[in-house]
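User: Um, any thoughts?
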Amino acid sequence: MNTSEANQQLVARFWAAFSASEFDDAVAMLDDHEFTWWILGSPKTFCLAGSRDKAGFKALLAGVSANAPGGIKMTPSAWTAQGERVAMEAESYALVSGKVYNNLYHFLHIVRDGKIVMVKEYLDTQHAAEILCG
């Protein structure tokens, strides 16, 4: 297995753990020192926008647990892996306070030495704000 395939498999395991609300397992795949999760949008208009370190991402996951008790199921639909870069298109589904959250995404993951060091998340920020930031 080459590096691109190994990195894609790591990212697939991360999202499988996330979708199963196995957040400790998911977080264990993130680098302890240089990890960053960035979400598209302006923090002034979208509560989730901006960058988070690993501790900030753990806090975000705690919010998922509190507001979407069934978790957020992420279904990948397309992959591109080249070296340390793994791109993934996906669709989410969750019930949040009785409302359906169903969004489309593009994620760019950077993987180094068997750990995810960066994620960039692109999504419909208006839909996410309406359901997740209310």
Observations:
- DSSP finds four helices and seven strands in the chain.
- The chain has a mean pLDDT of 95.
- The radius of gyration is 14 Å.
